[in-house]
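A further point concerns the way the authors explain their paired sequence and structure data. Since the whole study asks how a given chain folds, the encoding of that fold should be made plain. A single example would do more here than another paragraph of explanation. An entry of this sort, consisting of the sequence and the corresponding C-alpha cells, reads as follows:

_____
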Amino acid sequence: MLELTYAVEPDLSVEEFIDILKRSTLAERRPIDQPDRMQGMVKQADIMATARDASGLLVGVSRALTDFSHCTYLADLAVDQAFQKQGIGKALIEYTHQQAGKHTLLLLIAAPKARSYYPHIGMQSHDSCWMIPSQPN
C-alpha cells in the first residue's frame, strides 16, 4: 500500500507545481510558459494542499481559493498519472475541504478529461455555472 503524507504547503515552489501539472496532464490547460502568472497562482492561493510519497516526491496537489466562511473554489487538482486511480485526488479534495472548513461550499470546474471522475467520487453536478473566458493582456 502506498504511504502518503498530506499537508498544506503555502511555500510550494513554482517549479514543483509546474512539474506536477505536467505529470498530471493539467499543464495542457495552464499558463506554464508564463512564469509570472504561475508565480501568482501559487502565491495567491489560500490553500495549497499536497500529497507526497515516502521519498518526498510530490504526487498530487490541490490549489484552492476560499473565504473560509462560505465558499471554496478548487482551482486545480492534479495527480501524477503514474499515481492515479489510488484515491489520491479524492483524498486531496477532502483534505482541502477540511482546511477551508466543511461548512464551506466546495466548487470546481472540471477539466474535460476529468468530467466523469467527479460524479464517481460523490460530487454533484450543477448546471448554472457562468463564466467570462480569460482574454490576452
Remarks:
- The longest helix spans residues 88-100.
- Residues 1 and 79 are 17 Å apart (CA to CA).
- The first strand starts at residue 4 and ends at 8.
- Helices lie at 14-24, 35-43, 88-100, 117-120.
